[in-house]
Hints:
alpha/beta; five-stranded parallel sheet; 5 strands
Amino acid sequence: MKHTQKRITLIPVGGLANRMMAVESAIALSKETNMPLEIVWFKDWGLNSPFHKLFEEIPLPNVTIREAKKKDLLTTDRPRKKNLLIPHLFQLFKYQQRMYETEVFEQMKKGFDFANWCKNRESYIAAFCPFFPAETHFQHFRPTTELREEVQRITAKWHTHRRSAYPKNRQYSLYRGKSDRSIRPLYEQGTR
């Protein structure tokens, strides 16, 4: 079944925090424009993990997130040399407008009006940065039960008494560029 309502399609790019910021921006943009948002999550060198292994579903009515499928590599992925720019051909027909990560970043720095740009248009955005003002940061992300349990298992082994990486004696401060003198006292304290 084909959708008839115009929507925003987001391809979050980069590492985990970059993707999370881009998703939060897209959610805010979706709310501002009252348009549905589809997020397509690709596994790649920046983050080789599917969304569902990291987070629970985002419980918003106008937002869907899905893992990229093999066909998305040729249709929805960012056009790059490694895919011979083939997705660009499909995107020319599917989306009324497209903006890829470097352009998104440049336009964001200029204060570009993303809401007006995508309002009532089939829009494609690939982003690695917070391109639209969001009320919250990372509020919509809830780690999976398995991930929370794994973090709990690992952190339970940590000792409660730890030494600070920032010594109280300011002469050894990393900020002042004296890294050897700042690390040596910490090392010596830990070997006593």
